[in-house]
Each structure stands twice: as structure tokens, then as C-alpha cells.
Amino acid sequence: MAAAAASDPGTASQSQAQTGVRGLLGAIGVDARVFAMIAALLVIWLGFHLLTDGLFLTPRNLWNLAVQTSVVGILATGMVLVIVARHIDLSVGSVLGFIGMTAAVFQVTLFEPGVWWNTPATILIALAAGAAIGAFQGYWVAYRLVPAFIVTLAGLLMFRGGAWLLTSGRTLAPMEPNFQVLGGGITGAIGAPASWVLGLLASAVMVIAAWRARTRRQRFGFPVRPVWGEAVRLGLWVSVILGFVATMNAYPQPRTGIPMGIPVPVLILIAIVLVMEAMTRTTAFGRYIYAMGGNPEAARLSGVDTRKVTLLLFVLMGVLAAIAGIIATARLNAGANATGELAELSVIAAAVIGGTSLAGGVGTIAGAILGAVIMQSLQNGMVLMGLPSALQNVIIGAVLILAVWLDVSYRRRLKGGGA
Fold first, then answer.
1. What ranges in 143-191 are assigned the alpha helix state H?
2. What is the torsional sign of CA 55, 61, 66, 70?
3. Do the Cβ atoms of 293 and 84 come closer than 8 Å?
4. What is the pLDDT of residues 52-97, one digit of tens each?
5. How far apart are CA 225 and CA 31, in angstroms?
6. Considering the domain 32-185+263-414 in this protein, what is its CATH number?
7. What is the pTM of this model?
8. Residues forming CATH 1.10.3470 domain(s) in the chain
9. pLDDT, tens digit, for every residue of 193-245?
């Protein structure tokens, strides 16, 4: 084998190139799969920019893309953990729509308009309803051992019908002005000064955290990245953060011309991502989810209360669906029966594209967010191109099949089974 490789200079040079690329990525702390997804995203962006005559990569469209991604991204952070634990949730789109309609009912018909407590009370009721729905579905999965596929498929039908029954199919509008802020829109952003402060603060926190982590690893004798690799990694992150802020600030308000800044839904998404990342990395609950996904029987025998963890996991998914429903309803400025239709497909596709294995045990929050950006970029670009919705669904379905095939092929190679 060695002689054959040596006699084929093409194979040898290709192997050296792959080793060099992997070594470079390892030095700056970037996974090869993440790098491939980022490269695919850039290709998608450039392709749509050319196909839409320069409309895609404009500040206005990127601002809208960021808002659109927030709903799918929030749901994807929970869907990752559900799939990691070897379950599935097909009801998230219907729960999103049901919670959104519930919020609209309270805002428009039950609560007095214009009072200060209208929006806070609506949000609390929506979150409580989401948690209750998650507990209901989680109970049947965890304690009655009904497969999650069946329970959430039933939930998909029940809560979509429930949204219609709440108003007999009517659309309720408008929502309270301070509630609309949660959905973005003209007033739903924090402006340029606050955006720059937030971006610079985030960059400084990242640099300080990296320095402290490096110092801690050196103190205890753990391996560290090369200084140049650490510098490149931090430089890339800071460039992404400040570039994002600059792009959001480049989009002016249609009426006043004042820079919009970072949208409120994106800030909510960022906060949820930070909380979910901390939960998966530092809490027993997060570790139990991955342990259950890796080997449910071993996790149970080691003392993990798998039924309780499953129940809490679906409660968490319900709360995230409620947050997404609040944002979607606020952005639409109405409670509509079609809100959230087929959202579950985009969310599951985002998780899978982001590297979550349908076999369980493997998946990351960051990967799911990257998958959500890819999914929304595809949908946004196809809308700009004027493709009919039926063709869009065909393309999204094909992308989902391709993503699962790539995931299966990648894990087969890792096990040494070939392509």
C-alpha cells in the first residue's frame, strides 16, 4: 500500500494537501465539517446575488434574512437536543401557530388595549402555554412510551386545528405597538450606536475569554493552539461580529433614513443560543441528553432519570416554540392561521444540515444555527428569484435528502466503512 501511494504522485500530493488543510483548520480551531458548511453558504450567497441581479447581498435583504432566520434558529436550538436524545418533534410549526394565535386572542380581544401590562401578560401566558403543551407531549413520550413521532404528529394536527378553532378561522389584528417590537419591523431594532456598543463589547468579551482559557490550559499542562492560530481565530470572529453590526447598520429606516441596527428578534436568538450552549456544556441536564442519545440503556443504568429528562426536554421545546410564535406573530402584526405552516421541515432540515445525526447522540447548537442560515438563505433567494412556492418545496425537500445522505456518508467514512 505504501509503495502504491508513493508510486502515484497525484494521490500523494492530494493526501498532503488534505493534511495541510486539516492542519490549518485545526490550528485555528475550526472543524472541517463547519468549514465546508461555511463554504457552501458563501457559494449560495454569491450564486443568489448573481441570479437576482445584485439584490441578495444588499443591506436590506441581509437585514430581513437575519430576522427570518431568528424564528427557525430558535426552534433549531431545541430540535437539536430533541434529535440528539433520539426523538423528533413534528409539531413545532403547529405549536408556533397555536401560541401565536393565542397571543393575538389575548392582545386583541381579551386584554384592554393600550395598558402597560398587556404585552408582558401576553408573553407570560404564551410561554406558560408553550410549557404546558411541551409537558403534555413529553408525558406521553416519557411516561406512556408512545413514540415521539406519533405524539408530535398528533400534535401537528391538534394544534393546527386548535389555532383555527380559537377564532373560527379569522385573522386577528393589530397587535400592541410594544409587542410589535419583538418581531423586528420599523421600530424593532436597537439603532446604530447601541449595535456598535454591543458588537465591541462582544468582541472584547470573546478576546478576554480566549485569553483566560488559554492561560488556564497552560497552567494545567493541557495542549494549546499556536499563538498565530489563536490570533487568526479571534480575528475571524471579531471580523464576523463587527461585519454583522456594520451590515445591520447599513440598512436605514424607510421613513427616517436612520440606521436600523441589530433587530430585536436576532438579539433574542443570540441570547437563546448563549443560554442553550451554556446548558449543554455546563449542566447535568445537557450532559444527560447527550448520554441518552449515545446509549439510552447505559444512561438509565448509570442513574439518569431518562423519563424526567425527556419530559423536561419537550417542555423546553414547547417554550422555544412559544418564543418563536411570539416573534412570528409580532412580525406579522396579526394572528393568522397559516403562521408556522411547514416550519417543522425547515427546522429539522436546519438541524440535520448543521451536523445533527438522526441516529442520536451527535449535534451542536452552533451547527444548527448555521444550518438555519443556510435554509433561510435558500428560501430567501428563491423568493427573490420569483420561484413558485411548489418548486421551492421541491428544492427544499431535495436539499433535506442530500443533507441526510451526506451525514450518513460522513459517519460511514469515520467508521472506516467507505462511501
1. 148-167, 177-180
2. negative
3. yes
4. 999 999 999 999 999 999 999 999 999 999 999 999 999 999 999 9
5. 14
6. 1.10.3470
7. 0.92
8. 32-185+263-414
9. 999 999 999 999 999 999 999 999 899 888 888 888 889 889 999 999 999 99
